[in-house]
Predict the structure.
Amino acid sequence: MLFSGRRRKLGANPQTEAYTQSLQFYGQPPLENISLSEFETFAVERLKLLKTVENLGVSYLKTSEQYLRKLENELKNLNFPYRSDIDDRKSQNGPSETEKRRKDHISHFILRLAYCQTEDLRRWFIQQEVDLFRYRFNELDPKQKLEFLHRNNLQYDAISSKEKKELLDKLVNSSYAVSGITVENNDFYKVPFQDALDLVRTRKVYLKAGYAYIPHQDIVTIVLNDFRTRLSKALALTARSLPAVHSDKRLQPLLNHLSHAYVGQDYSIQKNVGKISLEQIDSLSGKSFPLCMRQLHQSLRENHHLRHGGRMQYGLFLKGIGLSLEQALQFWRSEFVKGKVDADKFDKAYAYGVRHMFGKEGKRADYTPYSCMKVILSNPPSQGDYHGCPFRHSEPELLKQKLQFYKVSPAGISQILELVKGMHYQLACQKYFELTHNVEDVSFSLSHPNQYFIESQKVLGGVKDIKRETDVQESSVARGSTTAREAEVANTSQHLTEVTDDLECYFRDA
Ligand code: SF4
């Protein structure tokens, strides 16, 4: 894979030359050749990192000890640079610091391609990248911060001791958390006020003659503004070059799927087939189904029909929790014949779709249940549809009514609606899980409706085989072995490129 550009070509030792610093503004795209498999691995791992950044950012204060520790662990586990030390020795089994920086650089640019496509994707990507950047900038020591500023043309001058003395009272009074003693020991930067609007707005700095006087520890705000602006412009520019990228048949499906990619287990494993009886479904839907599936089940029972999008989303979910093909046929047929579809019409118009979903017709692919990202980002429901994610696709008032109907407490509903307002749909769903299972803090990061089901069964002490199977998979990932990660990436890769559109055309209403 060649990242082309008009920028300067890298020298004889491109890695050493390009990656002398642990942190960068990603001003220059990578120019080297990489394999498609490396392209995919880097992209998936950065996506995982950004998802962690999002989850931690909502769960903890961004300056808290837990936030910092958990983010550092994730950076370490995924082999991204996390410290500013220039230590290029390989750790015992892992990559060298230069290799990590290279991965950081290339993966950022790959996700730019995937996440420049819509306003929503751009906003999400910028927010997570800015949070990641904040963490890493704060990890630099004061000297490295200054070097970073100068290297990136942020030539802010520190004021002289004389000026500092003259302005001492004003600086102490206007600068948040600065005492007279630290004013003397710390640098203050004189920055055009328009570069420091956030600090001006929150009245954190002294203003004089169009300049803001910024204490050393607050300079990160300026750098983040600059990074955000650069990234926003770069994404707009990247979006313009998309037609050229999309003409590459190898990359187009990959990039499309990356933007709603799910980076975990795909829940296609069929070891639990037949472990759930049809009689259990009503009770399981109330206890262990996420809201999206509970809503689909309820609508199916009430209307004896689901439209195409609903049958796809719910049918694959049921397959994932263990319904066999025979059970699925029986389940859908028995419900549809209670409505306007007779058994003959069901067999002609709908049974093929169910068999196809189980890989028994057409291209015989083993289709996987939809991840949250796929449900949230693709095929929004319209009038008469019940598929989609209620946290994303329901009006807040309607969502509130649903939650009240399901007996969620008023305080819980407010918390959920607050998360929805911030567009943290999966975290809202996680909160719903906590409230309906009476647990304080879930130990997983939700990204799949079938994961919700399995976690619920664990809490309720349900299907033991599902529990065991998940534990095995989780522990292998937790061990962080290269083999486990490779297997997972390969798995995801297969998932990314799977062409579900083919299935969808068989599933349309007759
Ligand atoms: S967040 Fe995921 S599991 Fe929860 S309701 Fe939405 S799509 Fe379903």
